[in-house]
Structures are given as C-alpha cells and as structure tokens.
Amino acid sequence: MIEVRHLVKQYDDNLAVDDLSFTIEPGRIYGFLGPNGAGKSTTMNIMTGYLGATSGDVIVNGHNILDEPEAAKKCIGYLPEMPPLYQDMLVREYLEFVAELKGVPKAERDDEVMRSMRLVRIVDMQERLIRNLSKGYRQRVGMAQAMIGSPDTVILDEPTVGLDPKQIIEIRQLIRELAKDHTVILSSHILAEVQEVCDYIMIISKGRLVASDTPDHLEELVKGSETIEITTGAGEQKVRDILHGFSEIEKISCEKDKDGNTAARIDVKEGSDICEKVFFAFADQRTALRSLSTIHATLEDVFLELTKNEADDRAAIEDARPQKKNKAKAKDTPENSPKDAPKEETKKDESNL
Amino acid sequence: MKAIYKKEMRSYFTSMTGCIFIAFVMALLGIYFMVYNLSNGYTSFGSALSAVSFIFLIAVPILTMRSFSEERHNRTDQLLLTAPVSLPRVVMGKYFAMTTIFSIPMAITCIFPLIIKHYGNVSFKLDYSCILAFYLMGCAYIAVGMFLSALTESQIIAAVTTFAVLFLMHLWDQLVKYLPTSASGSLITMIILFTLVVLLIYKVTKNWFLSAVIEAAAVIIPVIFYIVKSSSFENLVTNALKNLSLRSVLDNFTSNNIFDIRGLVYYVSVAFVFIFLTVQSQQKRRWS
C-alpha cells in the first residue's frame, strides 16, 4: 500500500505537482492518465525516491520514503520512461546486477533472474547484448528489472510508448499477468490503454488530481449530459419549430452539411430519454429524419471535460483519438478545397524542417 | 556497494577504458623508469615518479569522466537511485572500483625497485613510501575527477574540467608565487577569494541574506585586522595557499626523503572531501 499525502514539487518557476494526495490499495491496476507534462512522471519519480518532493509525504507499506528510503524502495519496482539499461551488458548479466543491487540473497539470485526473464519472455535473449536489442525487448528487460526482488508494487512509466501495435498488445497482456501477484501503477497519455488495462483511473492535469475512480464510474460522471444527433432534409428553422415544445432540451445547434441537410445536435437535460419523442415529433410533421443517434459520454469526454481550458494539452491527446480526428478532417476538406495550395506549402515547410 | 563495485570493474574492462588507462600509465611509468633509473643511473625510483607525476592530468580524466556523467546521460542513475542502496554506498562502490583499476599499474610498479636492486644499492623503504605517496595522490585526484563527473551529463565536459582542475593543482606551487605578497595585495586577494566562496554559498543555498552577512564579515574582519596590524598580512595569502599544494607532499617524499605523514593524511582527506561532495551533488540534484 502506498500513501501519497499533499505532494508538491516546485521547479524554479513552475509547479509540476500541486498538492497531490491519493492512496494505492494492494492488488489493483492503477492508471495515471493525463496530457503530456501533467506531472505523471514527476509524481512517479517522487514515489520511487528518485526525486525529492518540495513538500508532502510518500509512505510505502508504512515506511516514509525519506526517513527509511531503503525499506520503502525494497517494496517498489520501477520502470522509468526510458528503461535504465547498461548498453554494454548482456541481458542476463544486467539482471544479475540488478538482483544483487536490490539485495537478493546469492542463493536465490539465479532463480529470481530466471523467474523474471520467464515472466517477460526474454529467456531466449539472455545472452544478447542490450545494445543490440530492439525497443520492444529493451522495454521487456526494463520490466524484468522492475520485477526482480518481488516488490509489492510495480510502477511503470509509459510502458508502451514507442512500441508497435503488436508489441503494445503484448505488453498490455504482460501487465495483466503482473497484476496477478503485484499492485501495478502505470502512466499513460493514451486513453484506450488505460481504459483497457486499469481497474482504477486517476486523471492528472497540471499537477492536480482532477478525478479518480473506476473507468465505469468515471463515464457515469458525465453521462448526465446526453446528446442526440439528428440529420434531416428540413431547414434549420423548421427543426427548431418542431423541437420547440420540449422542456427537456437545453440547447440545439444546427449546421448545414454538404448535401443540403440540416445536422442538429440536441443537448438534453440529465436523465431524460426523449429519443422516441423526437422521432414522433418529426413524424407528426411529416418531416423525414435521415438519421437519429444518441451519443453516450465516453471516458474520452470525461478526460476532455476535466482537462479542458488547456489548449496546449488538447494537441497532446489528439493522437489518442485518431477516429474523431479523421471525421473532422473529412468535414473540413470540402470547405477548404480552394485553399489547397497554401496547405501544400505548409506541408513542404514541415518537411524542410 | 559490492554490486556496483563489481559492475564498474566489469564495465571498465568491457569498454576498454580500464585497459587503456592501465596501458597508458604503465607505458609512461616504464619509459620514465627506463630513462631515469636504467639509463641514467638514478638509484631512487622516487625521482622517476616525481618527473612522471604529470601523468595524472591525462590518465585521471580518462578514468573518471564516465563515472557519473554516463549514468546520468543514459538515465541509468534512475536505477541506482531507486534501488534500496544508499547514495554514499553507490559513490563508494564507484570510487573503489576506480582506485582498484589504478592499483593494478601501481602494483606492477612495485617490481621496479627490485629491478634497480639487481643493478646496485637501493633504499626499499624510500622507494616504496614514494610509491605509496604517488598512489594516494592519484586516489585524491580520482576523487576530484569523480566529483567533476557528477556535476555534468557530458563526459567530454567532465574530462576537460578535470584536466583543467588537475592542471591547476599540478602547477599550484608555481602559480601561487605570482599572487601579490605585499600586505595590501594580500588583503585584496583575500577579499576576492572570500567573495568567490560567498558566491558559491549563494549558488548553493539561494539565500541572499545569509550570503550578504558572510560577505560583510569577510570584508570587514580582514580590513579591521589590516588596520590594526598591516605587517601580519605580508605573504599571508601565498603562504596559506602554499599549504594546500598536493604536489609538494609528493616532492617531500621524492626529493627531500621525508616520510610526510601529514601529507598522506592530507591526500586521504582530500579524497574524502571530494567523495562527500560527490554524494552531496547527487543528493542536491534530486531536490532542485
């Protein structure tokens, strides 16, 4: 169990971690979620004793990381963002060094190294130089390193960054396996990953904990504000007239799409299901609906909601939501078609850079 | 500590740095031994050692430059600092690995007096105490190099600054002579030196009030003493700084045939101070 109390980390002019408090219960997979630069790595570095906090305490299994660093560090295995590997060592040699460093008794050292190599499936690689390993295997060696000494808690800082999709799936499976015997804390700026792997999510923004709950509960948080999207051949005024009588509707926003249809987003008050009512209202007016769909809040919306007003950060999470991005692009193209030429120019500039 | 010591030893030999260091030291010692003792007939090995002491300027940076800066560059310091090992042990492990590498050529050097013995009379006591002084001087320099390596992420910067600092130490006695010896000159030099120290204190503590108080004291007290008795300031700074010379200890052994225990203690203290500073610099990095 790890307890973090009122953690603050102040660099010269910016506050990386701002009064962060939470408790890590044993046997779960925790996910730190936040845009780049939110303070995830800093928090992890403080929890593992690599950095000192400006104020606040980290207590690992009853040991304060500052007062009893050795006892506290024994309970934690850490894989930093960049795996701390010695390039000129063999995999096995490296893991043996880590085992000795972590104080694994000599008699158990070989078994411990073997166990960790089996767990991350790098037994075949044990006689290779770390320098010659691919990124995916280096990440695994890094994980094996964190596993040595059987710590209660394993902290993984962005364990899947820079890996190809197949490796990402493998690493995720690995994390689930680790979770059988250890508490796992991982950080990520990729939503899908955290949602898939973690039992409990902590959303961090600008060094503050803005939400922490299970993925399902977090989704329920914003479920209140449901949205209905309709497309119809009728004009905007007609749509507004038809929907005029509904007290449940908070806001209607319309726009014409390229085929001359009206696409309307209807924000509905909490807990009211007016999908059918809307359908029949349009049917009564003999106005055809081309499409009608309800949009449920996803974790992504929670994330955006909680970290909004941070224009910079939006760009950072954009890569986590490729589908939506494509949609937006598709919408943009017809409008921007005359401007294609300048667009190309900017592309050229980028390639020059 | 043992784990780090073993790892360091292994990496010195897999990365060739250790081999190059040993080969370089042995080659130079061999050449000076041949020229001084074998060709020119000096019976004391100390004279060769004294002449070859510039070797540290090049050999020590080779040995120490990677010690901490490489760890920092590759981020492997995260492993060492998050492992259940205390920082002084990490530093000691690395330091002892470096001095062990340095012991290898020094152990081979112990054969040299025996070779001289084959050709004529030799004072073993004198020669071996010279070797001991030479070895401890190297150990003190290695601690300095290690400290400078802990301050930077770049091995090149570590090597260059180590060379510069060792160069200054090597020529210490000659350079000190150029400082002003008159009473007023001593006073000014003294105040400048104190100010530099205060700047360092300010840099570390970031407490301008404390620094200002110390600076005021450092200016006012010497000035009062100067007004009271200016003659006592003559040669004050040069004499004080002369005592800090590391080379003069070796010279005491090699030229003056003195077994300078005070000097040996000084070498060990310098090594200790710089090991301590290395620990502190690493510690400080975690808090800034």
Which chains have the largest interface? A-B, 30 and 25 residues
What share of residues are in beta strands of chain B?
A: under 5%
Shape call of chain B = flat
- The tally of helices of chain B reads 16
Question: What is this entry, summarized?
Answer:
Chain A is an alpha/beta fold. Chain A contains 14 helices and 14 strands. Helices cover 41% and strands 25% of the residues of chain A.
Report on the architecture of this protein:
The complex is a heterodimer of chains A (353) and B (288). In chain A, 41% of the residues lie in helices and 25% in strands. Chain A is of the alpha/beta class and 353 residues long. With 288 residues, chain B is mainly alpha-helical. Chain B folds into two domains: 2-173 and 244-287, no CATH class; 183-234, no CATH class. Chain B contains 16 helices and no strands.
Question: Strands, helices and their partners?
Answer:
The complex is a heterodimer of chains A (about 350) and B (about 290).
Chain A: E1 2-10, E2 15-24, E3 29-33, H1 40-47, E4 55-60, E5 63-64, H2 69-74, E6 76-79, H3 91-101, H4 106-119, H5 135-147, E7 153-157, H6 165-178, E8 183-188, H7 191-197, E9 200-205, E10 208-213, H8 215-223, E11 226-232, H9 236-243, E12 249-256, E13 262-268, H10 275-284, E14 289-295, H11 299-306, H12 311-318, H13 322-336, H14 340-352
Parallel strand pairs in A: 3-8, 3-9, 6-7, 7-8
Antiparallel strand pairs in A: 1-2, 1-4, 4-5, 9-10, 11-13, 11-14, 12-13
Chain B: H1 2-14, H2 17-39, H3 45-51, H4 55-64, H5 66-73, H6 77-82, H7 87-109, H8 112-119, H9 124-150, H10 155-170, H11 172-176, H12 183-205, H13 208-228, H14 236-242, H15 247-254, H16 261-287
